[in-house]
Specification:
About 40% of the residues lie in helices and about 20% in strands. The protein is α/β, with parallel strands linked by helices. The strands form 3 sheets. It has an 8-stranded mixed beta sheet. A two-stranded antiparallel ribbon has the order 2-3. The protein has a two-stranded parallel sheet with strand order 10-12. Bound molecules: iron/sulfur cluster (SF4).
C-alpha cells in the first residue's frame, strides 16, 4: 500500500487553493462539530494525534514529497489544540520538511480568541503563515441560527488579533445562510465585519444541502426559507456594494457558486456589480435553491 494512505484519516478537507499542498493532519475532525450547515466532519470523532505519530508522519511525508513547498495542517481547527503542541508541530515541520515555505490551516474565531496576542505571534513566528477562517456571516442572528458558537464582535476581535500577530487571513462568507428572513442583515452585517477586518482574501461560497434540505432544517431547529437563485444574486450584490476593502482579493469560484468572480476588490468591485446587475436583470425567478448553474465571466 502507498504510504500516503497510512497518514490520512478520511475524509480529508482542504481549501481549493491548497490542492497541491502536502496535508498533515494534526487533529481528526472538528472539536466543535456543531455548526448546523456543516457536514464536513460529522462522520469523525474528534481527536488530537499523539506527537509521536505526528513526527513519524512528517518523516513519511518528507519521503513522499521531498520538493513540496506548501503544507496544510488539518483537520477542522488547529486552534482547538493546546499552544505548546502547536509550537512543537511547527518545529517538527521545520526540521523534517525544511523546503516548505508556506504553512496554512483552518482556524475558528471561537478558538482563536482564546489565544493571547503573544501566543499567536509565537505561532506565526514558528512558521504558520495563513489562516482560513470560516466567518460564514457577520450577523449575530445568522450566527446563532447556525450555532456557530461566536458573535460578530468576537469574530472581529479574533481576526484583528490574528492579523496583528502577523497572519494572513483568508475568510469565507456563505451566501444564503440567513434564508429569506435574514438575507438583508446577513449581507449588510457581513460587509461591516469584512470592512473592519480587511482580510487578505475573501471567498464567497453558497450554502448547499449535501444531505438534503429536510436534514438541514432538522439540524437548525428553526424555520428557514432558502433563497431562490435570483435572491441569492441580489444578496451577493448587496454584500459587494457595501464592501470597502482596500487590498482584498475576492473569489467566488467554489463548486457551490453560481457566478465565478475573481479579482481585487479595490479595482474590480464596480465591474463585478455591473455584471451582477446585467445577470439579475436577465435571470428569471427560479425557486429551487438546489439549481446551481455556474456562469463563468
Ligand atoms: S467549526 Fe468549522 S469545521 Fe467545525 S462544525 Fe463549524 S464550520 Fe464545520
Amino acid at each position: 500500500m502507498n504510504e500516503s494512505f497510512l497518514v490520512y484519516h478520511e475524509p480529508v478537507f482542504r481549501p481549493p487553493s491548497e490542492a497541491n499542498s502536502v496535508i498533515l493532519q494534526v487533529t481528526h475532525g472538528c472539536k466543535w462539530n456543531q455548526c448546523t450547515f456543516c457536514e464536513m466532519y460529522t462522520s469523525k470523532k474528534y481527536s488530537v494525534k499523539p506527537f509521536s505519530t505526528i513526527t513519524k508522519e512528517v518523516r513519511i511525508l518528507s519521503e513522499i514529497h521531498p520538493t513540496a513547498k506548501r503544507l496544510f495542517i488539518g483537520d477542522g481547527d488547529l486552534f482547538s489544540v493546546e499552544f505548546p503542541l502547536i509550537l512543537k508541530v511547527l518545529e517538527c515541520i521545520k526540521k523534517g520538511l525544511p523546503q516548505i515555505n508556506r504553512i496554512s490551516t483552518y482556524a475558528s474565531t471561537r478558538t482563536l480568541s482564546k489565544f493571547t496576542s503573544e501566543q499567536l505571534q509565537a505561532i506565526n513566528e514558528a512558521g504558520l503563515d495563513l489562516l482560513y477562517v470560516g466567518l460564514e456571516s457577520g450577523d449575530d442572528n445568522v450566527l446563532s441560527l447556525i450555532n456557530k458558537g461566536t458573535t460578530a464582535a468576537l469574530q472581529t476581535e479574533a481576526c484583528l488579533k490574528a492579523k496583528n500577530a502577523g497572519f494572513k487571513l483568508s475568510v469565507m462568507i456563505l451566501s444564503g445562510l440567513g434564508g429569506k428572513v435574514h438575507t438583508e442583515n446577513h449581507a449588510l452585517n457581513s460587509a461591516k465585519l469584512l470592512n473592519a477586518i480587511q482580510p487578505d482574501l475573501l471567498a464567497l461560497l453558497v450554502i448547499s444541502f449535501p444531505f438534503g434540505y429536510a436534514h438541514f432544517q432538522e439540524r437548525t431547529k428553526a424555520h428557514f426559507e432558502p433563497l431562490s437563485q435570483l435572491e441569492m444574486l441580489k444578496e451577493m450584490r448587496l454584500l459587494l456594494s457595501n464592501l470597502n476593502l482596500k487590498s482584498t482579493v475576492f473569489r467566488s469560484d467554489h463548486a457551490s457558486n453560481y457566478l465565478v468572480f475573481k479579482g481585487g476588490l479595490n479595482r474590480d468591485k464596480e465591474t463585478f456589480i455591473q455584471q451582477l446587475d446585467d445577470i439579475i436583470e436577465h435571470t428569471i425567478h427560479v425557486p429551487s435553491p438546489h439549481l446551481n448553474v455556474r456562469q463563468h465571466l
